[in-house]
């Protein structure tokens, strides 16, 4: 399912729609959301932040990042609040996508941990959240408090390159098996070669559970962004990490033509890139076992 998640602070034209949406879904006095969201747009402090999930420009979900969710644990922050997905869109893992987005956004703001309070028992555990105790609300209710690590999606530095290279060689084993060739360049690249490549390229890292589990790199030449080495740890695949890395690397080279390539038998890669809007524009035969498929956007 295609969707995008936008921040109200960066997209103030959605302010009134956001105020109305949160008010309708949570039944609170509209003035509370209006005052909070309106001031959040120009606030110098990192929080609060409010987000909408859109499908074809229609709001289908939302959440907020705030300093406290009306709960007694004032020492903990930030909190994910007001998590909501429209009923007819449930069952598509959209709630998990919103939560994951919150973990990434919190990391961008410098937080290492993130929290939420809920009455649900068993849902958030599926996504790695840990129940750390209970808290109390001003109206007398008690809620379960959950904690998780934030997710770092950012520029890699030289200290990360050894881990990225190890991940690259792990991720490309499956490609080597497809073509029966374990001498492919990603498996043969040295740390010195990667360090040299990093001098002219942007290399991104995706950090979850305290380790690098994804990466992608790109370089700009003559108005084209050449993207390569999109890798995700096998244990973390099928979670949308590759899509997030691609989206972020494209933002780094906004407004350019994008080009990449993959092997002709790499059906999973071809499907992912096509879904992201890339189109095949040429194929080159390397040998009897391998042809490179070039795609652009």
Structure description:
The chain is built from 9 helices and 14 strands. The chain has 297 residues and is of the alpha+beta class. Strands 8-9-10-11-12-14-13 form a 7-stranded mixed beta sheet. A 4-stranded antiparallel beta sheet has the order 1-2-3-4, sandwiched between helices. Strands 5-7-6 form a 3-stranded antiparallel beta sheet. Helix 1 (15-26) runs antiparallel to helix 2.
Order of helices and strands: EHHEEEHEEEEHHHHEEEHEHEE
- Runs in which pLDDT lies below 50 for 5 or more consecutive residues are none
Please report which band the strand proportion falls in: under 5%, 5-15%, 15-25%, 25-35%, 35-45% or over 45%: 25-35%
Helix content: 25-40%
- If you compute it from the alpha carbons, what radius of gyration comes out, rounded to the nearest whole angstrom? 21 Å
* Arrangement of strands in the largest sheet: 8-9-10-11-12-14-13
CA distance, first residue to last residue: 20 Å
The tally of beta strands, per DSSP, is: 14
Number of helices: 9
State mean pLDDT (0 to 100 scale): 96
Largest sheet, strands/sense/barrel = 7 strands, mixed
Structural class: alpha+beta
Shape: elongated
């Amino acid at each position: 399912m295609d969707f995008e998640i936008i921040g109200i602070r960066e997209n103030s034209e959605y302010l009134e729609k956001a105020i109305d949406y949160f008010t309708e879904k949570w039944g609170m006095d509209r003035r509370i959301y209006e005052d909070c969201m309106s001031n959040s747009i120009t606030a110098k402090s990192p929080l609060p932040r409010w987000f909408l999930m859109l499908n074809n420009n229609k709001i289908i979900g939302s959440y907020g990042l705030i300093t406290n969710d009306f709960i007694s644990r004032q020492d903990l922050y930030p909190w994910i609040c007001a998590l909501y997905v429209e009923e007819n869109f449930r069952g598509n893992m959209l709630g998990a996508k919103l939560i994951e987005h919150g973990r990434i956004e919190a990391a961008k703001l410098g937080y290492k941990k993130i929290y939420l309070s809920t009455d649900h028992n068993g849902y958030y555990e599926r996504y790695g959240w840990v129940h750390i105790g209970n808290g109390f609300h001003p109206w007398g209710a008690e809620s379960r408090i959950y904690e998780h690590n934030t997710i770092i999606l950012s520029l890699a530095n030289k200290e990360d390159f050894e881990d990225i290279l190890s991940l690259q060689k792990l991720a490309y084993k499956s490609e080597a098996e497809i073509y029966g060739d374990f001498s492919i360049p990603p498996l043969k690249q040295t740390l010195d070669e990667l360090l040299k490549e990093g001098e002219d390229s942007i290399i991104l890292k995706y950090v979850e559970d305290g380790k690098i589990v994804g990466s992608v790199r790109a370089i700009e030449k003559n108005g084209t962004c050449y993207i390569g080495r999109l890798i995700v740890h096998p244990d973390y695949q099928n979670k949308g990490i590759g899509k997030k890395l691609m989206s972020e690397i494209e933002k780094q080279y906004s407004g350019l033509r994008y080009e990449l390539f993959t092997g002709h038998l790499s059906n999973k890669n071809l499907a992912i890139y096509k879904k992201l809007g890339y189109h095949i524009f040429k194929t080159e035969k390397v040998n009897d076992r391998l042809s490179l498929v070039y795609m652009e956007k």
